[in-house]
What we know:
homodimer; mainly alpha; 3-stranded antiparallel beta sheet; DNA-binding; Arc Repressor Mutant, subunit A
Amino acid sequence: MKSDGPCKDCSRINEVLSRVGDRWSVLIVISLGNYGTLRFNELKRNLGISQRMLSLTLRELERDGMVNREYHPTIPPKVEYSLTPLGESIRGPLREIGDWALNNLPAIDEARARYDAQSGLDRESA
Amino acid sequence: MKSDGPCKDCSRINEVLSRVGDRWSVLIVISLGNYGTLRFNELKRNLGISQRMLSLTLRELERDGMVNREYHPTIPPKVEYSLTPLGESIRGPLREIGDWALNNLPAIDEARARYDAQSGLDRESA
DNA sequence: CAGGATCCAGCGCGATACTG
DNA sequence: CAGTATCGCGCTGGATCCTG
Lengths: 126, 126
């Protein structure tokens, strides 16, 4: 159940991936990276995320030191989110994946089409 | 719901992340990358994955053209999995993330400790 | 406007049992 | 050994309502 066996790093990598791989975390980081600073509802609208998930994810990201939360006690309240240096630092690796994705999605789609076409008929015959 | 709003690439990036971000997909790719070729139960043991998830994930990865499946109709049967060129090509970006993780996990843990310490007491005062 | 609280549906995923 | 089929629970995450 937790026996990542011989692959010790796996657990740590896993840890990070459960954050980095989380669609909302990634999208938020990307958005904040592009826009610099965004307010709660701006993020909400931009990403089409429910405010529950936005709230939860932002708190997690803040907790992890990835985003800054600036609270302005005005009326109405105004909260601005932006990336911390740590948050900035992950943009590179993230972009790598993004680029790979954009470059290889066609290949993937193609592979899928091929796979689906013969839909597992003669797997062993050949 | 589906309104990724202005962020058109987001949906595609999301697509890839739901695969790349999937813990099992990643671990399988990493394992196959390290060992070259592995059999079903070898992967199962190495990763501590249930055979259900392993089966499902492998099929997805095969469908996406990321892994090769070589079936040997011997008795007992023997199936060998390995990375395709496409699968190989994602190892780089993946390693980027992994490296980032290993380098920054301490910073994250630290940030968390700090966050948890003041556990959201004076959020606006200070 | 920013977000907490609640409720609830869906499916992710593990455990188990069976097959070729 | 390499899977498939089934069941069941827990967590994810959206919808909704409410507050400061």
